[in-house]
Write a structure and sequence with these properties.
Strand content: 15-25%
Mean pLDDT: 75
Order of helices and strands: HHEHEHEHEHEEHHHEEE
CATH class of the largest domain: Alpha Beta
Low-confidence stretches: 233-261, 267-304, 307-338
CATH architecture of the largest domain: Alpha-Beta Complex
Radius of gyration: 19 Å
Strand order of the largest sheet: 1-3-2-4-6-5
Structural class: alpha+beta
Distance between the termini: 21 Å
Oligomer: single chain
Number of helices: 9
Shape: globular
């Protein structure tokens, strides 16, 4: 690994300092831009960069924090966007000469949601052609002679290098999880329909997903849940309900080295409005390094109490090998985690 390669940077940890006045969104952005300046000539994660617009947005976020009035939990968070996702102020070229310098008339739903929440879109990241064809120039941050994985190659490489704490990617088969794993960062692909795909060039409307690649589990969930809340998920509303609470417990469990399904459910049952106490009687333990699917767990969604108890499935993955950072999720109905 190159000695001057920075670690991924977490927005969640920095945001606490924003609120306390120890640093600002502008300073955090400059840290990301410095990493881009230092590494992107070799890594080639970005196809378009809007440093001027990003600084303007960061200054606005700084003023909001100084007034103790951030717009949302992601206010001031630098975000990189895969270049098959529409942005009105930057070209969306999809790594194709057909779309060279093409500029959409409007942001994709996910981009609009993040901008309205105060997030800072710093640029567009390299994708394989139309997310399925020829590869782009992006290199693996840990070994530039190797692939970063695709098709969300630039998004994963940018996060790994500390160029942004989070980036948007898309997945039909493995295009979020694979590059996240190759680049040693967190990849989150929610259930189909869990996040909106309006304004994204889709390969298959029945198979494509919007996902998030991030420095930490907390960062991935923060961005995904904000998109869902602000843009309204077209699916069954997983992001804004019990899943968020479950993931928060998983983060705490993993940090304490107690990542087992039994322990998770024991803690969740302390929140009686979220998980049915009868759930644990049917669930075995999850051992490290495995993905185990648990069927028939009853959730109640705090944002929709009129729905009563809703039956959901859970995938629970714990990585105890430490080959990759941040590999623990609880995602109702999800097919995979990295």
């Amino acid at each position: 690994m190159p000695r001057n390669l920075p670690e991924p940077v977490s927005f969640v940890r920095a945001a606490a300092d924003f609120r306390d006045g120890r640093t600002t969104p502008r300073r955090f952005l400059e840290r990301c831009l410095e990493a881009i300046s230092r590494h992107d000539r070799t890594i080639k994660a970005f196809v378009t960069l809007d440093a001027r617009g990003a600084r303007k947005a960061a200054d606005a976020a700084t003023r909001r924090y100084e007034q103790a009035r951030p717009l949302s939990p992601v206010d001031g968070c630098p975000i990189a966007v895969k270049d098959i996702i529409a942005t009105a102020d930057m070209p969306t070229e999809m790594n194709s000469p057909i779309y060279r310098k093409w500029r959409p008339k409007a942001d994709a739903a996910c981009v609009m949601a993040l901008r309205r929440a105060g997030a800072i879109v710093i640029g567009k990241t390299v994708t394989t052609e139309f997310a399925i064809g020829r590869s782009g120039p992006t290199r693996n941050p840990f070994d530039p002679t190797r692939t970063p994985g695709g098709s969300s190659s630039g998004s994963a490489a940018a996060v790994a290098c500390g160029m942004a704490p989070a980036a948007l990617g898309t997945q039909t088969v493995g295009s979020v999880l694979r590059p996240a794993a190759y680049c040693g960062v967190v990849g989150f692909k929610p259930t189909h329909g869990g996040l909106p795909t309006g304004g994204i060039h889709l390969l298959s409307p029945t198979s494509d997903h919007l996902g998030v690649i991030a420095a930490t589990v907390e960062d991935a969930w923060l961005v995904a849940s904000q998109i869902s809340v602000a843009a309204a998920s077209p699916g069954i509303g997983l992001m804004g309900g019990a899943a968020g609470i479950a993931l928060g417990w998983v983060v705490n469990l993993v940090q304490r080295g107690e990542a087992s399904m039994g322990r998770l459910l024991a803690l969740l049952q302390e929140q009686p409005a979220i998980v049915s106490p009868a759930a644990s009687s049917r669930l075995p333990e999850a051992r490290g390094g495995r993905t185990v699917k648990y069927e028939g767990v009853w959730f109640r969604y705090p944002n929709a109490p009129e729905r009563g108890w809703v039956l959901q499935d859970i995938d629970f993955t714990v990585d105890t090998t430490h080959n990759f950072r941040g590999s623990a999720f609880v995602v109702p109905g999800s097919e995979g985690v990295a």
